[in-house]
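Budget justification aside, the reviewers requested a transparent look at the raw inputs and outputs of the sequence design task funded under Objective 1. We therefore reproduce one unedited record. The lines immediately below are the structure tokens for a 282-residue chain.
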């Protein structure tokens, strides 16, 4: 199974370092590409809150979750919790004998101490794509599936400001208990392209954005950096970007799209944000 795990570590970067990075250096430090390769777990560990971002696309037989050697753990969830959102065809996760079937855009939380986890696709012609986020955990909370109709839904923005969007809170503390992991999904309405605008930062947690449903031939420009010293990274469909706690995280696409946000840190308060006035951005 070890040859079916691709693992990469990314060191934490300071605002001063990011200011001096060229395009390729920004992409090397913050962009996560190629999340879905058939029958291979793809992991990127960020030293911001030791956040793991990954993907698995089981194209044939069920695949078992194993701990990469760098985690120095007997099993993956020995000291971690895991959030899963299916962004592909119908799939199944079996966790310590409990079966969870996940349709498109459904989520699953697996608590610390879950030992045996398997991923599989239920349609050979349409593989499941499990997007994975994992954070260190000190307490074992119950595992739980979150269907689309169980999400906490908030509608924000307007067509006039091109940011009319629906926020689906999936793995958040208002729905189920977690140690620090929070995940949700924001869907932009047709004609809207801006997400998370006005932009914000939050000192007590970092974030990862995963962009998908980006139409073929289109792209998203993700904006990062301190409010007065911003940078941008262009992303294609099914790519992710690491957002440090000191950085804004906002994006604008050449079409509408959907993104999954995942967060970790010492704060579970979704509304704890330091907003940046649009006219103050530089």
């Amino acid at each position: 199974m070890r040859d079916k795990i691709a693992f990469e570590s990314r060191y934490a970067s300071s605002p001063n370092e990011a200011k001096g990075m060229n395009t390729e250096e920004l992409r090397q430090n913050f962009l996560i590409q190629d999340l879905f390769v058939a029958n291979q777990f793809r992991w990127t560990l960020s030293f911001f809150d030791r956040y793991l971002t990954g993907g698995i696309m089981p194209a044939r037989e069920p695949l078992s979750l194993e701990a990469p050697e760098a985690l120095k753990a007997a099993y993956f969830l020995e000291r971690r919790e895991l959030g899963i959102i299916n962004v592909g065809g119908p799939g199944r996760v079996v966790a310590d004998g409990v079966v969870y079937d996940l349709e498109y855009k459904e989520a699953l939380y697996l608590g610390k101490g879950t030992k045996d986890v398997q991923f599989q696709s239920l349609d050979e012609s349409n593989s499941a794509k499990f997007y994975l986020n994992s954070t260190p955990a000190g307490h074992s909370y119950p595992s739980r599936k979150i269907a689309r109709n169980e999400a906490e839904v908030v509608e924000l923005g307007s067509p006039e400001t091109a940011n009319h969007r629906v926020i689906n809170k999936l793995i958040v503390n208002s729905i189920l208990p977690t140690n620090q992991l929070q995940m949700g999904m924001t869907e932009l309405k047709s004609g809207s392209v801006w997400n998370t605008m006005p932009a914000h930062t939050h000192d007590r947690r970092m974030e990862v954005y995963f962009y998908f449903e980006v139409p073929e031939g289109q792209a998203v420009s993700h904006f990062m950096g301190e409010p007065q010293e911003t940078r941008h990274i262009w992303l294609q469909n099914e790519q992710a970007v690491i957002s440090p706690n000191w950085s804004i995280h906002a994006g604008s696409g050449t079409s509408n799209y959907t993104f999954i946000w995942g967060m970790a840190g010492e704060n579970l308060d979704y509304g704890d944000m330091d907003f940046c006035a649009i006219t103050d951005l530089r």
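The longest strand covers residues 205-212. The two ends are 47 Å apart (CA to CA). Computational costs for records of this kind are itemized in the attached budget.
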